[in-house]
TrEMBL record:
CDD domains xrefs: S-100
Descriptive protein name: SNTAN protein
Superkingdom of the source species: Eukaryota
InterPro entries recorded: EF-hand-dom_pair, EF_hand_dom, S-100_dom, S100_Ca-bd_sub
PROSITE patterns, sorted: EF_HAND_2 (PS50222)
Gene name tied to this protein: Sntn
SUPFAM superfamilies from the UniProt entry: EF-hand
EF-hand domain span: 50-85
Molecular function in Gene Ontology: calcium ion binding; calcium-dependent protein binding; transition metal ion binding
Length: 99
């Protein structure tokens, strides 16, 4: 659908597609499913972050037994939070691209 979209539009469309492919019919994920999805699909950003307090806080919240499910908005907030604390983000900032 976004064949001619910008790189940023394609990135968000991919995030939405990955989320939707894992979500239940109501468009939500359990906390356990969310944790698994992040650990399998966002590994490059979370690798090496296990000892950071913010990472532990995020994962601990997903480990809590709760009937509350994660919707797409909350999922995107988790993605942004993990991205901002990631060492990979610093590496990306140091890469200069030419067009």
């Amino acid at each position: 659908a976004l064949g001619k979209g910008s790189d940023l539009e394609k990135a968000f469309a991919t995030a939405a597609l990955v989320y939707n492919n894992s979500a239940d019919p109501e468009g939500k994920l359990s906390k356990a499913e969310t944790k698994t999805l992040l650990q399998t699909q966002f590994w490059g950003f979370i690798q090496g972050q296990e000892n950071k307090p913010k990472y532990q806080e995020i994962i601990s919240a997903l480990d809590e037994e709760s009937e509350n499910k994660i919707d797409f908005e909350d999922f995107m907030i988790l993605l942004v939070s993990l991205t901002l604390m990631s060492d990979l983000l610093q590496e990306i900032k140091n890469v200069k691209t030419t067009k």
